[in-house]
Design goal:
Helix content: 40-55%
Shape: elongated
Order of helices and strands: HEEEEEEEEH
Number of helices: 2
Structural class: alpha+beta
Distance between the termini: 109 Å
Radius of gyration: 28 Å
């Protein structure tokens, strides 16, 4: 019974530890430009990046993650969306960059989220080299909680992006309908005026 209570208590702690910080951002990256965001990380910190291009061009962007020594951890070209998780291998400032340098005119709207989880190997043994069954269960549960949190954030970003696309499409359809209506009214008035002038000329002749 005590073991079950311990597992439940650890589960509650894990929910707090492994979701200690999450933030989502929408940024517009101009043509021939690059936008970078910075995070101070400690060794062993788990980090998850999720992103999606919401508007602009072919909905693609170049992505890059750079460590404090300017070494590239992850690099992707012309990606529409994605997610990448890694553990910080050293203390310092990490860069998360989105580049639109391949675009000549079009800016891109990127929605992304950076998730900072708990430290890798945060469960410490009281006895050296001893891994009991409870310890293994806790580690498995920790990984599962982190995976579920990352997937949930990724789906939230996708839902937000699709909502933005739907709103934008709906707005364009409404404005196009107004434009078509205006053109139709102008053409109708023009035809009425032309016919009226035509009969006036006939009467004069």
């Amino acid at each position: 019974m005590n073991t079950i209570l311990s597992v439940l208590l650890v589960c509650l702690v894990l929910v707090g530890v492994f979701t200690d910080f999450t933030h989502g951002v929408a940024v517009e990256v101009d043509a021939h430009a690059e936008e970078c965001f910075f995070e101070m990380l400690t060794t062993g910190k788990k980090v998850g990046l999720m992103f999606q291009v919401a508007e602009g061009g072919f909905l693609d962007i170049d992505v890059k993650i750079v460590d404090p020594n300017s070494k590239i951890i992850y690099s992707g070209e012309r990606e529409s969306d994605g997610k990448y998780t890694f553990g910080a291998h050293m203390d310092g400032e990490y860069r998360f960059c989105f580049s639109n340098e391949m675009s000549t005119m079009t800016s891109k709207l990127v929605v992304f989220s950076i998730n900072l989880g708990g430290d890798e190997g945060f469960v410490k043994d009281d006895l050296e080299g001893k891994h009991d069954k409870l310890h293994d269960m806790v580690e498995e549960l920790a990984e599962s909680v982190m995976a579920v949190k990352r997937e949930q954030d990724y789906m939230t970003i996708r839902e937000r992006t699709h909502r933005m696309i739907n709103d934008s499409t709906n707005s364009r359809v409404v404005w196009w309908s107004f434009f078509e209506t205006l053109v139709l009214i102008v053409m109708t008035l023009g035809q009425v005026y032309y016919i009226h002038r035509f009969f006036e000329v006939k009467q004069l002749v």
